[in-house]
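Hey, I'm writing a tutorial for new members on how sequence and structure tokens pair up, and I'd like a real worked example in the thread rather than a made-up one. If someone can provide the structure for the chain below, I'll link this post from the tutorial.
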Amino acid sequence: MSLKFRSWAAALPLLLCALGAQAQSLKAEQAWVRATVAQQKATGAFMSLSSSQAGRVIEARSPVAGIVEIHEMKMDGNVMKMRAMPALELGAGQRVELKPGGYHIMLMELKAPIKPGDEVPLSLVFEGKDGKRETLELKAPARGMAPEGAGHGLGHGKH
């Protein structure tokens, strides 16, 4: 085995690790989950999402909930409606806000209450336009109801 081959073989794991870090195109910032009250079986997760390439978030998961879905809330006439979405589109370099009253991740059939300060693990699966998938793992801190979020009603269990 030549010295050049050994040098490349030794450097290959480092190169692959560096490429893997750069290949992560989905980015989440300012993630948080709304803390729950007694007997509440659902809550929302919120964050700012962006991607270096066009694609879509096709799945969300969390071990704290039996069901995790991507949702959208919007006005339909004079009625605020919420619906599950099969995917959330992301344009290359564009930011999409997940916030109370808009897009959000719905955590339903909660396995335990979520208290302020808890770290809630979330996994988001992103699919690029090329069909390649990547998973972003994050931990979102739980916090209480913000005054500006009052009235958005994400604390329901059925819809």
